[in-house]
Design goal:
Layout (H helix, E strand, L loop, with lengths): L1 H21 L24 E3 L9 H5 L5 E6 L2 E7 L8 H5 L5 E3 L14 E5 L9
The structure holds iron/sulfur cluster (2 copies).
Length: about 130
């Protein structure tokens, strides 16, 4: 009985000691969005599509494991469609695009309450030379 009481008291002090120790350590959280994180050079965020460089070869579409990209071409237009509700930000599309028409930016802010907003379409004849 007394032994279990001592174990409980020890557990409380262990917890308090852990909190005390961590109060002197550097914070790992940020007051986002007022403060912005320092993202790695290799961070993969939203895509930038350069319609002037795009050949409509559809390689990005084929290498996408999530089936998130669609490229459509007609006589005077190329359409680039990406569905961020499917994209897993693996970077395959950027890696395999031989003209570097796709680059991944550090923009990670995709939160929305409307799923349709995650489906983004750009077209070369809309002057979408470089768009997210
Ligand atoms: S973005 Fe790159 S890989 Fe995709 S269709 Fe255009 S040129 Fe091909
Ligand atoms: S980053 Fe990966 S999942 Fe997202 S569109 Fe590109 S290939 Fe597909």
């Amino acid at each position: 009985m007394f032994k279990s009481f001592l174990i409980k008291i020890k557990a409380i002090f262990d917890g308090l000691f852990t909190v005390f120790k961590h109060s002197f350590k550097k914070r790992v959280t940020l007051e986002y969005p007022e403060k912005r994180p320092n993202l790695s050079e290799r961070f993969r965020g939203k895509h930038l599509w350069n319609s002037k460089k795009c050949l409509a070869c559809k390689v990005c579409e084929k290498v996408c494991p999530a089936n998130a990209i669609k490229i459509e071409k007609n006589d005077d237009n190329i359409k680039f469609n990406i569905d961020y509700s499917k994209c897993i930000f693996c970077g395959n599309c950027q890696y395999y695009c031989k003209t570097s028409a796709i680059t991944m930016t550090k923009d990670f802010e995709l939160a929305t309450d409307n799923k349709a907003d995650l489906n983004v379409e750009k077209a070369s004849n809309n002057g979408d030379e470089a768009n997210n």
